[in-house]
Design brief:
Elements (H helix, E strand, L loop, with lengths): L10 E3 L6 E4 L8 E6 L1 E4 L2 E3 L1 E3 L2 E3 L1 E6 L5 E6 H4 L1 H5 L12 E3 L7 E9 L2 H9 L2 H7 L10 E10 L5 E9 L2
Length: 171
């Protein structure tokens, strides 16, 4: 089962393959504030936004109880196109904005992560001399480089599901 390094302690799989999971803080809390960077193309749907000549999108969760911050996703670090194709840029924390709705400022979080196959990752990433000279990837890095990502939020206060808050093909 693949679990990304940045989500290792907080991603709890809810399917047998480990693609779907819920986010639970190390303290046990499931309620989070959301801070994000990106362009909203619908009211509650976060897209990629141009930033400093490249592209950025990031989602951070802050635990309601202990205030621990977790970077759930950054296009430049987790996205195949953002990292491998170097189209992404890491967005500084001060550019992240708090996400709230008319009814909610705390959210439960579910994520779906899709990966390239081992064979494809081996051929395209591990077998690429340029990428290897620059990043020195191993098969263990496959868990942190996604080809597709969805993040679904559910309001703690209202119970409203914000499906596809993020829904990005990353490869």
């Amino acid at each position: 089962m693949l679990i990304p390094k940045n989500l290792n302690d907080i991603f709890h799989p809810i399917d047998d393959d480990g693609y779907d999971g819920e986010i639970v803080c190390k303290c046990g809390c499931k309620s989070f504030e959301i801070c994000c960077f990106g362009e909203f193309f619908e009211k509650n749907k976060l897209g990629i936004e141009e930033y400093n000549g490249k592209y950025g999108q990031a989602v951070k969760a802050i635990c309601k109880d202990c205030k621990k911050e977790y970077l759930l996703y950054d296009f430049a670090l987790n996205g195949y196109d953002g990292l491998i194709c170097e189209e992404g840029i890491v967005v500084p924390n001060e550019k992240l904005n708090k996400f709230t709705t008319e009814t909610d400022n705390l959210f439960y979080i579910k994520m779906f992560l899709e990966y390239e196959s081992e064979e494809q990752f081996s051929e395209e990433i591990l077998g690429d001399e340029y990428l290897q000279s620059k990043y020195n990837f191993t098969m263990a890095d496959r868990a942190s480089i996604w080809s597709w990502l969805t993040i679904e939020l559910r309001g703690v206060q209202s119970g409203i599901a914000y499906e596809d808050f993020v829904n990005e093909e990353l490869a």
